[in-house]
Amino acid sequence: MDSSCQTRIDRKRYVVLIAGIVIQFCAGTIYMWSVYKGPVAEYLEWDTGSAGLTSSFMLAAFVAGIFVGGRLMDRVGPRKVCLAGSLIMSLGILASSIVTSGSPYLIYLTYGIVGGFGVGVVYTCTVSPIQKWFFDRKGFATGLMVGAFGLSLVLFAPLAEFLLSNIGVPSTFVVFGVAFLIICVSASILIGNPPDGYVIPKASPASDQKQFSPREMLRTRSFYLITFSLFFILSAYFVLNPQFKSLGMERGLSNEMAVMAVMITGVCSACGRILITWMSDNIGRMSALLLIIGLTLIGVVLVIFAEDLLYIVCLALIAFAFGGAAGIYATVTSDHFGTKNMGSNYGLVMLGFGASALIFPLLSTRISLTAIFTICAVTCVASLICILLLRRYSEVKTQKEVPQ
Fold this sequence. Notes:
The chain has helices spanning 3-27, 33-43, 48-52, 54-76, 78-95, 106-133, 138-166, 169-188, 214-218, 221-233, 235-240, 244-250, 255-283, 285-302, 308-337, 342-349, 351-364, 369-393. It is mainly alpha-helical and 404 residues long. Helix 4 (54-76) runs antiparallel to helix 16 (342-349). The longest helix has 30 residues, at 308-337. The protein is globular and about 55 Å long. The two termini are 24 Å apart.
């Protein structure tokens, strides 16, 4: 490959990165249900507890979308699948505008399952290819991309509050659905894998690493340790996510400060995705995972009794750690199992994400907050054990990280 051709291909990877950032920025509204919950419950004449479960359905469908989208992407490439995911995500949000008080549970289907599934598809179709384009700086590139996923909450939360107050629930869903349809479909056209034989200068090629098929990966001990560590460490965030705003007001925050707290979680989640994944290129994935566990444990212990500003600090810690986990597990998966079957393999690892998103919020509706936060502290310890076992007993030789 001559130098001019190599230069064009190198530029292409930044185009793919920017397009992926744009799509991730729109898809990040999956974490905004705490803003929607109150107005949607009021509009549909529904109790807030039932409305809050929409986020659990969405997160579970999100993982299903990652798995199915990853399998399809490995077969037909990311562009077509990303286009399909953009359509599904946008149509799910649009369909939510026609749900009425006569059948409020349909919001589980439209916004939760259909919308969440589409988000999962576009998520994996942007994250997985970037592992191949930026094999030399996987943590950096993945962090930027999924950082946009978390940062979207900062812009869209106040925008959603404004629209909900001024044009109502149905019209708000229409505005977001149409906007995401136009933006994500356009950006999807730019998504793609690198050409065969693509080699990053001064970096070890991906072909030097064993490329595990999903079947081979499922036979390793490392897969189960990674997946269960993900399942356990996310519990605190998923318990808090549907009630960031409502719990904040119970803990002494005004409505404005509670909305600000939601925005802060978005900033911290985005920072965690960018900073922790970037740091992991230098300090190692395992050290970064231990940092995530430590921050989550501190936050969840303090949130048991935290009020006012301390409550916001706890949310910030937990959201920062969650963002780091959301960013780093894609790179951990490719480090251990290669990039060739990244879509399918990452989808299987993300089953831990989906199970956590479904189980812990449901559990939180049946026991006291003190009890559920205590359980979340215990799950941090369980995640720590998984990571220590992975570090000690992993039978998979990971790709050596390239110094930056």
